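A reminder from the course coordinator: this example appears on the midterm review sheet, so study it carefully.

Given structure:
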């Protein structure tokens, strides 16, 4: 079933190539048509051959996301580079690909538009230059690549066959059936209107849906190692891992649930590919990447079972559970074996070299998913247990939720033995987690395993006992009224900061030291759903969606994280650690669909 799903998903024209959103690829053939620009300035010739949406680091090009249908039937983006600004629209109507490139701003000496064709991933085929364009042979299919503008006789240092045209007016490209510029415009307009109709179905959440859908569709790629399609966190992150793909654990599971709103195949692809990391590492690793890369020393927050359970409630596909259950159960059993100290779980790192990360303490912090959180400042690492000496409220809560979700999946699969095992484990850790409740402070607190002292560093992860259904109704009420809604700690115009506002680290606004992160808001929201706290839940949903839309409207960005002032990236900010097109940022809006009942969610976990 899964292989057939992937085969269906990996078909047709789309922006499958992770190296550039200006590369349009036909699957399964692997024919790529790449669009580039060559400057013709007097200081020399330069090429724009790769383009990424709003990357983490400064680059020569700026790309602004437009529409992108999941199936690639219509895409749109605007690129600014070397004094040239242009809009690229692509469409296909079942007979071939058309691309419309519209100059919006041109330098005194117009650049050349380069159209390169070739076969990706060593797929069989060939491209030859013809008098009227390029002829591509891919399997039994022949494709003529043509431009509506006359070609230039330029000898360019490119390895693939290519066309070069003067980019001083609107250019149309056709791949397959030759098209006139008017025909190309008509097809592009037709497919744009069709896409806009799909947006309109979401009513008051139309713009929120557009942000979420864009974050997933633009980051959806094909990878030959996986033999399938996935949506990594962002294309630019892939470049750090050999330019293929990288899947981070909880990022990928959370995005799978988000995709499940209306794209079942992509949701399943992300959930399954993340889970398959267990086959190599015995647990779902912090990351797995192309070329055999991965993190053998550490895992990441165990949210997989909870998200797969949610997808099951949405689509009721038993085969998805049959494919993933044993792997998820193996991961669940891994935690007590590798991360238990005194009946509670601690983040850790098993010190296996060679992925280049700092091992021991930093590896354990990476496992938490909160890489530089002040919660772990000054906490020693025990090299005998390979753990931070801190019983972590967030980890134990997520693990209990994992046990409960897996137990429900076991019941669906008629595996009563495993269901009993998981319920017993959930009960044991639930009782232990209650020992971290601090009555006088009205919140669960992390506790040092070496000294027994409680930590006073506050983070949204301390609200996760609501997600696990461990907090009593009174405990939940106190946590929300005394801490979550407290403007000195977590509440305000923009929420939720990753550390309390009155913590000395908050002012740093450096990654997990004070910035606002969508997964924290989302998991806290999921916990609030288990309790009769409707106003807090409603406000969290509204404030989160407003923050997402604020950034989208101002910069067309979907930030990895948000500055507590309400922006994803501040100009000239010294510590601007936020990818501007990172898919889990859209979780800030996905909560609105859950709140309005537009997507199924896991049943409430009773306290």
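Designed residues:
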């Amino acid at each position: 079933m899964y292989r057939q799903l992937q085969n269906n998903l990996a078909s047709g024209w789309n922006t499958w190539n992770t190296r550039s959103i200006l590369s349009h690829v036909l699957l399964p053939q692997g024919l790529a048509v790449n669009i580039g620009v060559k400057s013709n300035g007097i200081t020399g010739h330069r090429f724009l051959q790769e383009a990424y949406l709003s990357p983490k680091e400064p680059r020569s090009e700026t790309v602004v996301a437009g529409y992108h249908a999941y199936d690639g039937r219509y895409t749109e983006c605007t690129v600014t580079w070397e004094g040239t600004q242009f809009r690229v629209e692509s469409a296909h109507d079942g007979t071939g690909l058309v691309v419309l490139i519209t100059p919006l701003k041109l330098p005194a000496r117009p650049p050349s538009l380069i159209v390169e064709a070739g076969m990706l991933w060593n797929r069989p085929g060939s491209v030859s230059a013809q008098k009227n364009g390029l002829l591509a042979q891919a399997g039994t299919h022949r494709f003529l690549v043509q431009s509506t503008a006359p070609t230039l006789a330029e000898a360019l240092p490119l390895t693939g066959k290519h066309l070069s045209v003067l980019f001083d007016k609107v250019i149309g490209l056709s791949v397959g059936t030759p098209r006139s510029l008017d025909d190309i415009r008509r097809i592009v307009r037709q497919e744009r209107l069709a896409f806009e109709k799909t947006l309109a179905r979401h009513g008051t959440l139309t713009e929120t849906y557009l942000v979420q859908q864009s974050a997933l569709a633009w980051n959806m790629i094909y990878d030959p190692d996986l033999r399938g399609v996935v949506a990594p966190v962002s294309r630019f992150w892939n470049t750090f891992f050999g330019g293929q793909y990288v899947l981070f654990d909880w990022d990928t599971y959370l995005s799978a649930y988000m995709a499940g709103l209306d794209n079942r195949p992509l949701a399943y692809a992300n959930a399954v590919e993340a889970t398959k990391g267990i086959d190599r590492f015995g647990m779902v690793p912090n990351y797995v990447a192309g070329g055999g890369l991965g993190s053998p020393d550490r895992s990441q927050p165990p949210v997989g079972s909870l998200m797969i359970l949610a997808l099951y409630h949405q689509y009721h596909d038993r085969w998805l559970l049959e494919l993933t259950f044993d792997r998820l159960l193996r991961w669940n059993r891994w935690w007590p074996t590798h991360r238990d100290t005194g009946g509670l779980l601690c983040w850790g790192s098993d010190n296996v070299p060679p992925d280049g990360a700092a091992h021991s303490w930093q590896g354990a912090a990476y496992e938490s998913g909160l890489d530089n959180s002040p919660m772990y400042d000054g906490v020693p690492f025990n090299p005998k247990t390979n753990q931070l000496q801190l019983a972590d409220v967030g980890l134990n809560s997520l693990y209990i939720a994992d046990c409960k979700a897996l137990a429900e999946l076991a019941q669906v699969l008629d595996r009563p033995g495993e269901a009993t095992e998981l319920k017993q484990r959930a009960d044991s850790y639930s009782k232990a987690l209650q020992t971290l409740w601090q009555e006088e402070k009205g919140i669960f607190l992390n506790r040092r395993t070496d000294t027994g002292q409680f930590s006073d560093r506050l983070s949204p992860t301390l609200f996760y006992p609501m997600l696990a259904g461990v907090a009593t109704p009174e405990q939940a009420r106190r946590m929300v009224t005394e801490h979550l809604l407290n403007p000195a700690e977590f509440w305000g115009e923009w929420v939720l900061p990753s550390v309390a506002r009155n913590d000395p680290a908050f002012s740093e606004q450096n990654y997990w030291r004070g910035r606002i992160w969508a997964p924290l808001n989302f998991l806290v929201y999921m916990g609030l759903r288990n309790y009769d706290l409707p106003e807090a839940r409603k406000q969290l949903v509204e404030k989160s969606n407003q923050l997402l839309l604020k950034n989208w409207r101002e910069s067309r960005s979907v930030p990895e994280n948000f500055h507590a002032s309400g922006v994803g990236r501040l100009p000239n900010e010294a510590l601007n650690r936020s990818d501007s097109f990172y898919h889990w940022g859209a979780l800030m809006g996905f909560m609105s669909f859950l709140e309005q009942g537009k997507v199924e969610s896991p049943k409430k976990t009773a306290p």
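Residues 101 and 218 are 18 Å apart (CA to CA). The first strand starts at residue 12 and ends at 14.
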